[in-house]
Design a protein that fits this description.
The complex is a heterodimer of chains A (96) and B (457). Chain A is of the alpha+beta class and 96 residues long. Helix content of chain A is 62%, strand content 12%. In chain A, a hairpin with a 4-residue loop joins strand 1 and strand 2. The termini of chain A are far apart. The relative contact order of chain A is 0.18. The longest helix of chain B is centred in the first third of the chain and has 18 residues. The mean pLDDT of chain B is 94. Classes of the chains: A alpha+beta (96), B alpha/beta (457). The interface between A and B is medium-sized, with 13 and 11 residues.
């Protein structure tokens, strides 16, 4: 269900149906990227938690963004926690 | 026949401050379909949170200060005091009177669609505003700038003021530590010190107001230190901040020596950062953390998207933002493009004495290796300084080797008005001889301009 505070994500420049922001999905993607950079599971979870919270804060005043925006903002913050994971996260379409 | 694209608007202006307002109005008057989007208060920073309220408070501070020192002229001042809530009410009245603040109706009356929401680019021709998609043929980005938080350990964990938020303070703090000795830091330092706050001002450079010529910073440091009891900490870097009881403890490094300063409140005035978080990547607009890249016609890397004002990261004058907004509107509406002319754009600092500058400074000329002539006329050599009992200030003029005026700095009461004479001379390539030959009224502060100009002949 979409309540008014849920941010709508426009996917692939509107070529795919829009979705509500899914915190768990973002968390899982960050965990995957961090694990791929050979970080321990505990660290991956901690980093993903921090990045997800940062993105949630960023989304507070934004009712609608693109999936590309989420990726950019998450990468920017992930870079300060784990630069290698940030690179993999940013480039996942070409590297993973 | 090729199908033409249809858009909701001819122009969408993002930001209703000085950089956006003029363009929106000009385009609407030209019969274009215009929308303006503001995420904060309509009118932008200058009338709501910056120039207007600060100057309204500085006006009161100057009156109070002059009255307080009136005993030497025979005024009885022993019962003089102030009521800060009433002073704040005066500031609110000044903001209301300008008419620019909260002026949503002003736009709507001109047929401009006004939205109070955050704008976010979804594609080069489409933005999202409260989940509503708006498209336009042209965009003007005028989102302005915000006070930046310097990278100081512990600063994010303690509450601090910015030059915007301190205007809303219930009363002046007992002591205030200001990080940044630029124009805003110095204005607030003088304002708060006049109302009785013990002020510390820390600046990394060798002098406060490092962007002005050395005489300016040195004179203002003397005024603040000797007349207002401000502690000026030049060559000082703030290392960390911690909360201690109700106050804060600030660790600074000064000339390699670390020491603590305790203050009730901290004010961060260490520079502004452009507001760039509006999905510029989705629109393919090139930018750096310093600002949006534009060409001389104020076009971004995407031809139909323009930018004006503080978001360009070039400086922060309201009058420059208005100029850029007009130029952007012209270039959007007309086929022949124009470029903004920044020559003779004055910069002002509303301290007592006021500081005004136009054209090139001596430092600018030195960096460019320009052969120049300069002359300084101290205020105390003109008659007005005697009748007003005010001696701290000067007029400094700079000419090229042919005697043509290329810059000027004035530190004097009324410098903000006086500088326009020098600006006119710089803009129209007048010589120092022509300026000196122009009659200047006896007992006006402007006599100092004539004296400085005549020294250059």
């Amino acid at each position: 269900m979409n309540d008014d505070k849920t941010t709508i994500i426009i996917k692939r420049k509107g070529q795919r149906p829009t979705e509500s922001f899914d915190k768990a999905k973002l968390h899982q993607s960050i965990v995957s990227a961090t694990l791929s950079a050979r970080a321990p599971e505990g660290q991956a979870d901690r980093v993903a938690h921090a990045v997800t919270n940062y993105v949630l804060e960023w989304l507070e005043s934004r009712p609608e963004v693109t999936s590309h925006d989420i990726r950019l903002v998450a990468t920017r913050h992930l870079r300060s926690h784990h630069p290698d994971a940030a690179y993999l996260y940013e480039q996942h379409r070409t590297t993973l | 026949m090729a199908q033409s694209h249809t858009f909701d608007y001819d122009l969408i202006v993002i930001g209703s401050g000085a950089g956006g307002s003029a363009a929106a109005t000009i385009a609407a008057r030209a019969g274009k379909r215009v929308a303006i989007i503001e995420s904060d208060t309509f009118g932008g920073d200058s009338p709501n949170w910056s120039d207007v309220p600060t100057k309204a408070l500085l006006h009161v501070a100057r009156l109070y200060d002059e009255a307080r020192h009136g005993d030497k002229f025979g005024l009885r001042v022993s019962t003089l005091g102030y009521n800060y809530p009433t002073i704040r009410a005066w500031k609110e009245l000044a903001v209301k009177r300008t008419g620019a603040a909260g002026n949503r109706k002003f736009y709507e009356n001109q047929g401009i669609s006004a939205f109070n929401a955050t704008a976010h680019f979804l594609s080069p021709n489409e933005i999202s505003v409260n989940r509503r998609h708006l498209s336009a043929k042209n965009f003007l980005i005028a989102t302005g700038s915000s006070w930046a938080t310097p990278n100081v350990q512990g600063l994010t964990d303690v509450p601090f003021f910015t030059p915007r938020t301190i205007l809303e303070a219930i009363r002046p703090p007992k002591s205030l530590f200001i990080i940044g000795g630029g124009s805003h830091g110095v204005e607030i330092a003088q304002l708060m010190a006049t109302f009785g706050t013990k002020v510390y001002i820390a600046e990394q450079a060798a002098r406060i107001l490092p962007k002005q010529d050395s005489e300016v910073g040195e004179l203002l440091e003397k005024v603040l230190t000797e007349q207002k009891g401000v502690t000026v900490l030049t060559h000082s870097r703030v290392l960390s901040v911690v909360k201690e009881g109700l106050g804060k403890k600030i660790l600074i490094s000064r000339g390699g020596v670390e020491k603590y300063v305790k203050a009730d409140e901290i004010l961060v005035a260490a520079g502004r950062a452009p507001n760039l978080d509006l999905g510029l990547e989705n629109a393919s607009v090139n930018y750096t953390p310093k600002g949006i890249d534009v060409n001389e016609n104020l076009q971004t890397s995407v031809k139909h998207i323009y930018a004006a004002g503080d978001v360009l990261g070039r400086g922060s004058h309201t009058h420059s933002a208005i100029l850029e907004s007009r130029v952007a509107a012209h270039n959007i509406l007309e086929k022949v493009n124009i470029v903004p002319n920044y020559v003779a754009t004055p910069s002002l600092i509303f301290t007592t004495p006021e500081i005004a500058h136009v054209g090139l400074s001596e430092d600018d000329c030195r960096k460019r290796d320009l052969p120049i002539k300069k002359a300084v006329a101290p205020l105390n050599i003109i008659a007005r300084s005697n009748t007003s009992d005010f001696r701290d200030g000067f007029v400094k003029l700079i000419t090229d080797k042919k005697g043509i005026l290329i810059g000027g700095t004035i530190v004097a009461p009324g410098a903000a008005e006086m500088i326009h004479e020098v600006g006119l001379a710089v803009k129209h390539n007048l010589t120092a001889a022509q300026l000196a030959d122009t009659p200047h009224a006896f007992l006006s502060w402007s006599e100092a301009i004539r004296v400085a100009a005549s020294k250059l002949i």
